[in-house]
Amino acid sequence: MIRPIDFSRLLRCWPIIALLLLCTGAARGAQDAAPQPPIAQAPPNHAVLKHTRGGVYYVAKDLKEQHDKLIQQLKSLRDQVDGADIPADEALKQLQTLKQELEQLQKQILEKRVLVSPAKTHTQKETITIELGPERLLAIAADHLTVVGWDGPGVKCVLEKTVLTTDDKPVDEHFKEMRLIHRHARNSGLVGRTDAEFEADEKEFLATPDGQKLTAEQRDMRRRWHQQFSKSYQGYEDFQGREFDSLTIEGLRHEHGNRQLQVRTESKGGNGTWGSDWQRHATLTVFVPTCKVVALRGCGVELNVKGLKSKLRIGHGDSDEQAFGGRFEIRDHQGDVRVEQVPIQRLENVTGNVSLLLTKEFGNYGTSHRNDWRTAYVPPADGCVCKQITGDVSARIGRFDLRLEEVTGQVDVRNAFGNTTLVVAQPLASKPHLLFSESGRVEAMFAKSALGDLPIMAMSSHGKVSTNTTRETLDDVNFFSTDHRLQDHPGWRGFHTKSGDDSFRGFMTCMERTAQALAGEARTSGLDLLSSGGTVVIKVE
Prior knowledge:
Layout: H1 7-10, H2 14-29, E1 39-42, E2 46-52, E3 55-60, H3 61-82, H4 88-112, E4 114-116, E5 120-130, E6 137-149, E7 155-165, H5 172-177, E8 179-185, H6 188-191, H7 195-206, H8 209-212, H9 216-231, E9 244-250, E10 260-267, E11 272-278, E12 280-288, E13 293-306, E14 311-315, E15 328-334, E16 337-340, E17 346-351, E18 354-358, E19 366-370, E20 373-377, E21 382-390, E22 393-397, E23 400-407, E24 411-415, E25 420-424, E26 432-437, E27 442-446, E28 456-460, E29 465-467, E30 474-480, E31 491-497, H10 503-519, E32 526-531, E33 536-540
Helix pairs in contact: 3-4
């Protein structure tokens, strides 16, 4: 994957960098120009489609332009629907037509895309089998990772090594440097420390001469820093303070000899790229028997989990590489799942509770330059589908387009700037459910038989609320509240399940439920659909 150079690692070698800069200046004075990286030529009149390891996929410009145009038309149609500028039936027809055109075009692009790379690719594969300790705790740190549940003996690991070169030098040493390391021991660097471990380490340090020099304020700062740091390891309590099995890959970091290659591609009459990629890469596939807990750390390039029987904890820590465009999926899983800051795209057929924390930006953001203007941009939101979840779904999201289907437990989603869709084919569990967004679209689509007896409330403060139901099903409501919990958004309007003939009771219930939902307080069973500034839609098929 072509990406900017990782300056955070290069800063560790700042004195060397400074010397290199001085030498570069001298070289320029002597007109001794550094050799330029090789340029891989794409076919003429081609546009960049997608970056991949060591290269770029190109496609004919006209196909790329058609693709971008269809995507824009889909977005425009959604905006028209939100603005009630187009009848729903007409919008549905246009949507089906656009989707069919897009599917056909994407198939054509997939068939005609061309991989362009200036680098040569060398691969080597090795298989290792290990035995699990009695704790049945397994932690794996890798960025390109596949985990498969199996009943075979032990844990089977398949490590595929890749080396990229732009010359004919031997690559044997690169392969030797990449190793899979198995340990059975405590590893606080991978999963964090218990409070007792911190207290013991702190007591030992404070007894040293350096520790005794600290003021009370400095000691308090160290303690507060530990509290903040330990939050990044929430969910790994089963591992902390215990021996467990861990799998890590050595040889991928800069300090281990991994370097970046300059990668350039161009198309005459089209466009080009200039970036860099790590020279060494590793793909790890692990076959895992039933465990108590499996922790996956890193997951910066691609993640595929299938058929695992275990509690699952996934986090972005210990990542050596990050790429864009990879797949991140969990399927046919038995056990609770917790995902933190890894761009999961699909969770399907999960028996257990699902918890998502996706508050960072995952796209390939950057800065563009045009007509004397600089623009710091982010790409369109990623998408995530949670389907066939036998358990609860809890999510805290910054900007994802989230779709929920066939969830049997409680739904509690706060998706600040993304769109959230809930598809209800069977009546929801009798629990308090919440879909909330600051400015995104919140939509619930019910089968007629799935409405059930669960009260529904759909409200927006600065946006719109739409439904195709009658007032006998969802009555109108609006209010202005002085409740301190609603001080940022005191006025709300929308629809709610009709409370017999007592309209005042329904009004007071909506006002209190809105405040309770936004404050994260306990409330009675019901489905609350809230968007501060976006559109809320309830549709009954």
